[in-house]
Design a protein that fits this description.
By secondary structure, the protein is of the alpha/beta class. It has a single domain, classed as Protein-Tyrosine Phosphatase, Chain A (Alpha-Beta Complex). Helices cover 52% and strands 9% of the residues. Helix 4 runs parallel beside helix 10, helix 5 packs across helix 12 and helix 8 packs across helix 9. The longest helix has 19 residues.
Length: 257
C-alpha cells in the first residue's frame, strides 16, 4: 500500500489508517496526517476537498500559523481545532538553531528532550483531547498536521494507533514513514538555505536529514516519560488528555472496521 498522498505543495501527506488493529483493522480514508498547507496548490486543495475531511487539527503554535497561514479549498466547512495556549516569545526551534553547533548530535539531543516534554504541554493536551472528541463524533475523516507533520503529528498519530490496538512495530513503522527519501530530495536544499538565513551557517546534509527526519527513539522517549508519570499510555490518555471510556469506545467505533 502507498500511504503517501503525493501533493505539489503539501509535504508528508498520508493516510495513517488501514493497519491491523487487534482482531480488527483500521479503516482507510478516515485518518490523515500532513505538514502545513500554506503552500498548497489549487490542485492540492482539490485533492484534499475530495477526502471528506470534517475536522482539521492544526497543532502549530500561533506564530507558526501566522507565518504560514493555511490555504483552504473552495467550500471549506471542516471544523478547525487549534489554540493559542502557552506560547510567548521566539519559536524554541529557532532559539535552538541559533545557539546550536548544527551537528547531528545536537539535533538528536534537542529532539530527545523535546519528546520528553511534548506530551505534557498544556496546549497539546487541549488539542489532543479535542481531536479525540471530534473523532468520537464519527462524522467523517480527520486531518492532523503541524509544521512538518512529523513530531507533534507523529505523537498524536501514534496515540491514535495505540487506542485502536495497532501493534507496536506497526506504530513505529508508520511513524518512520516521515523519513521519505523523496522528501529529503525535494525539500532538503530549501531547508538548509532557511537555516543558513536564520543562523548565518549552513548545516551539513547529515544535519539536515537529522532535523527533517525522525528516529524511533524519539517516540520511545515520549512513551517512556508518559509511562513514568502516568503508569501507562492508557492512564495518560484518561487522566491527562481526558479520554474517558465512553469517548474511547466511540473513537474506536469510528476508526475501526
Amino acid at each position: 500500500m502507498t500511504r503517501h498522498i503525493p501533493l505539489q505543495g503539501v509535504e508528508n501527506f498520508r493516510d495513517f489508517g488501514d493497519y491491523a488493529a487487534g482482531a480488527g483493522r483500521l479503516k482507510k480514508g478516515v485518518l490523515f496526517r500532513a505538514a502545513h498547507q500554506a503552500e498548497a496548490t489549487d490542485a492540492d486543495l482539490a485533492v484534499m476537498a475530495a477526502l471528506g475531511i470534517v475536522a482539521l487539527v492544526d497543532l502549530r503554535r500561533p506564530n507558526e500559523r501566522e507565518r504560514s497561514p493555511s490555504r483552504r479549498w473552495t467550500g471549506f466547512a471542516a471544523r478547525v481545532i487549534d489554540n493559542d495556549l502557552g506560547m510567548t516569545g521566539e519559536d524554541p526551534w529557532h532559539t535552538f538553531l541559533k545557539s546550536s553547533d548544527l551537528s547531528v548530535g545536537s539535533v538528536h539531543d534537542y529532539m530527545d528532550a523535546y519528546y520528553r516534554r511534548a506530551p505534557f504541554k498544556e496546549r497539546h493536551l487541549d488539542l489532543f483531547g479535542r481531536y479525540f472528541q471530534a473523532v468520537a463524533e464519527g462524522r467523517g475523516a480527520v486531518l492532523i498536521h503541524c509544521a512538518a507533520g512529523k513530531d507533534r503529528t507523529g505523537l498524536l498519530a501514534a496515540l491514535t494507533h495505540h487506542i485502536a490496538g495497532v501493534a507496536d512495530d506497526d506504530i513505529v513503522d508508520d511513524y518512520l514513514l516521515t523519513n521519505d527519501p523523496g522528501r529529503f530530495e525535494r525539500r532538503g536544499a530549501t531547508f538548509m538555505t532557511h537555516i543558513e538565513e536564520l543562523t548565518g551557517r549552513r548545516p551539513t546534509e547529515a544535519a539536515m536529514r537529522a532535523a527533517m527526519g525522525v528516529e524511533a527513539r524519539y517516540l520511545a522517549a515520549a512513551f517512556d516519560e508518559i509511562k513514568g508519570q502516568y503508569g501507562s499510555l492508557d492512564g495518560y490518555l484518561e487522566n491527562a488528555v481526558g479520554l474517558d471510556a465512553d469517548t474511547r469506545e466511540r473513537v474506536r467505533a469510528h476508526i475501526l472496521l
